[in-house]
Amino acid sequence: MTAVATPSQGVLTPHLEIVGGRPLAGSIQVSGAKNSALVLMATALLCDETLTLENVPQLTDIGGMGEVLSAVGVSVEDRRNGTLVLDGSGVSHAALPYELVNGLRASFFCIGPLLGRLGIAKVPMPGGCKIGARPIVEHVRGLKALGAAISIEHGVVSAAVPGTSRRLTGAHITLDCPSVGATETLLMAAVLARGTTVLENAAQEPEVTDLANLLIAMGARIQGAGTAVITIEGVERLGGTRYEVIPDRIEAGTFLLAAAITRSCLHVSPVVPEHLSAVLTKLQDCGCTIERDGRGLTLRADEIHAVDLRTQPFPGFPTDLQAPFMTLLATAKGTSVVSETIYENRMQHVAELQRLGASIRTQGSTAFVEGVPRLSGAPVTGSDLRASAAMVLAGLAAEGTTQVQGLQHLDRGYDDIEGKLRGVGASITRFNP
Known about the structure:
This protein has 14 helices and 23 strands. By secondary structure, it is α+β, with helices and mostly antiparallel strands. The chain folds into two domains: 205 residues, Enolpyruvate transferase domain (UDP-n-acetylglucosamine1-carboxyvinyl-transferase, Chain); 211 residues, UDP-n-acetylglucosamine1-carboxyvinyl-transferase, Chain (Alpha-beta prism), CATH 3.65.10.10. Strands 21-22-1-23 form a four-stranded mixed sheet. A four-stranded mixed sheet has the order 2-14-16-15, covered by helices on one side.
């Protein structure tokens, strides 16, 4: 028996209560990209001037990253209107505290800019969602190639640049896999290095391009971001700037899926369609109609048909939308095959979808989804950020009431998701103990 109570019984744990079966209509606003904003915040470590970031989402992860940066001397001012003002002039030490880093994988990004600016860094091994192994081998190998001496003891990665100059040296680095985190870490490390760095098999995700564009605005010399080969010519120093974070493509995809799973018509903006090409193709393949306008997309859905999908690095289908899209396919006509190739533990949402009546069987990292006519409300728990979003989507479509636990995960990546969905017709309420 799941320990979630209805409001009349007394709330035992924070949860969302969703009354499903209601169509959505109107326009829904997409916040700035979480996965971009977190790494952009880390660039404050690279200069001693003010960096102003706009379109920053209000998320627990953003707050956590602010605390991490403050711990090493960055002044962080949250103006609460989507604007963060960061001043790195006070950065003088390079050891991140374990208690702040443990639950926030993005904090490991700090190792690159700290090494680039100070020539030394001590960063605990990263934490985050338990969706599978996300090793830092590529980060470490790349930083060593740039001249850093690195040791890992007692769960802490200690890195230092030998010699009196404390300055990294450009190198030719080929990544074994196009890791987004490693690409971003090495990009930030290389911008202040002596000489030229070439990153081959680099990640091509929009968040990497966003980072490169910010660094260029700060004075870096970078070519090829968004392609498999990035060239960085090191500079002596970087300066402050003002920069707007790109829209969150995963949030946008989640809202498009909300329209599809409720068989509704919904306008989602702002969206950069090129950031969602693989997702839009699959939505159209399963029967959705999508229209573009100047800033967003309008999705109409009636009958949904089964499609197969396989997660891949960008520009392929994003792993972060695998669980939400599987939820849609659980309501489609026919049988779909969903293959997860990025994270080995990213099928934890299947059991919860089954509680709602979905017909899904798994074989390793592959799920066979036989669509059912309807889902039925039940208490469920999101095991990670995107699984939690999948539970919300399921609740929107299910008959009756669905209670979704795991809000600590959901709040890491979605800024007021219940408020936004309520604004377009969903019956969704947050209950806190």
